[in-house]
Design brief:
alpha+beta, two-stranded antiparallel ribbon, 9% strand
Length: 382
Amino acid sequence: MNTKIHTHDGCAAAERRIARDQQIISSYLTSAVDKRLFHALVLIGGYGRGEGGYYWKDGKPYPYNDYDYFLVVKGASRRAARKLQKQLQPLAHQLHRLVDVEVDVAVLRLEDIASLPFTLMHSEMQWGHQVIAGDINVLASMPPMPWQTLPAGEFTRLMNNRGSLLLMNRQVLDETGDVAAHETEQFYRYIFKAVLACGDTWLAMHDRYHPSYHEKLDRLEQMSICPVENFMILYREAVRYKFNPVPEKYADEDSVNWQDRTVSCWLETLRKFESNRLGYDIGDWQQYASIEISKGQSESENALKNILITIRDFGLMHTMTHLFIARRYPRERMIGILPSLLLQQSSKGNSPADLPALLGQKTQLTVDQLTGHYFIAWPRYA
């Protein structure tokens, strides 16, 4: 599927605005890359799939959510591709200011497309994308990645990434007790991203996942069971917010209640999904944090590579002291520790004694300190 529209409903005014943005972004990015290297610019994510959202302001439509791209280069070494990735970041920030939408650009070598790993992101890209510039058949060498057979660990990873947004929300509430007016949009965007991830994961657990949000909603409506009571009320609201957000609607809402409800939904969805994946019920979240319990991440299969990554990111002394932990890819630690962090009602108390070692720390830490270390480590593996 290579869609020709960007928004979920094909609104003409929104499509014109987004098409103009694509022309601007394409012009800047293609000019910034050596012509001998540039091969294609691929728009992925909601706008690439034709399910992008937008909101109205002063009678005009404005895109909502990021523009996500793969910039494909041909004939570049891996080192050159990494260097180009760093060089493009200031330009991405400049483009953000120009189009008033965050722009994320990842450099991808054409030579690596045929061996891309089978991930949720790559599967969705294959199903729905738009080539903004360059070779229209740039992804032709991708191996088949049918979403119906995605590895279960991909949804565990998705839940970790979206649950981390809830932990960010928790930090805001811990600091202020409520959400300030200027933080409302981000707070509820994170809430609804977590709810949508719960829907994806629930569908995957019942072999009904689909990349389209219209189809996801239909399939969830048809199911007789949900992860938690009243889940569909939350999910419908999340879909509405994704497509046509109205952040000011939530200015007077009880943000603590929204956070608590969503965290409960996230925890219960993860518990049921992981129990199903592992083949036995998870006893408690502190037990789940144990590195002995696989979190289903495919990278964890290469123990030597993971030890080298652990040395790089956590140091030699930590690696040698915790060699068994080091054999697992570090994302497994992030996945394991997050439920325990989200369950803490106060950031002032001490964390469970065995959790700091998962983040490379030697001593007992408060939950607040442990959360800080989590956010230093997590982005490397998200």
